[in-house]
Amino acid sequence: MPVQAVTMETPPEDADLTSTVYIDSDNVDLIAFCSRHAISGNPVQTAVALYHAVRDGILYDPYRIVFSIHGMKASTTLHNGYGYCVAKAILLTAAARAAGIPARLGFANVRNHLATPRLQEIMGTDLFVYHGYTALFLRGRWVKATPTFNRELCERFAVLPLDFDGKTDSLLHPFDAHGKQHMVYEKDHGLFQDLPIKLILQASMDAYPEMMKGLQQGGTGGRFQEETGAFCTVTRDDS
């Protein structure tokens, strides 16, 4: 049965605290990770601490993606120390659930105006389909948090690190540190209580056939952060 989308208006359910194959919040290493950062008796501070631990402790890397059950598990990303946007969102969702905070996965299509030349060539587009974020239920409402880009990567790209205070939505900045247009959200796919892997795979194969072929053959090679010394800002001519 396919994983169904829910909305920000849907109140927390048991599924939002449940460990799954991908969001394996009952994994012993993940529980230990949560314990290191949790603030006893304060869900908001715990959510903020977990956000920063995932944002900066897990390097963003879109080249080393493994679309398998093991490859997409939260505990695998924690062990690897790197992951792309969806993997990092899965990890934050699992860590929040381990701390007793209801959490869901969110996805949106975005235009990313910031990329290395190599990534642009491999993708063949500046459209990122099913970009991942996390929704956390704090103080009686769902709040969005995006732990994608670690601080060091942001500094190399001249992008302000995206912060999260546990009270307001934390989505990708529309402008970089120099005021140039950076990220545009084009379509929101809603929230999910588990990973909609079939939807993500199909959308990715449609959008990036060559990149997906490379990943299926063992990866595209390289380390994204090592390329960021020569970044490029990609803009569209909409005229």
From TrEMBL:
Transglutaminase-like domain span: 77-149
Annotated InterPro entries: Papain-like_cys_pep_sf, Transglutaminase-like
PANTHER family (alphabetical): BLR5614 PROTEIN-RELATED, CONSERVED INTEGRAL MEMBRANE PROTEIN
Name of the featured protein: Transglutaminase family protein
Organism: Desulfobotulus pelophilus
Organism lineage: Bacteria, Pseudomonadati, Thermodesulfobacteriota, Desulfobacteria, Desulfobacterales
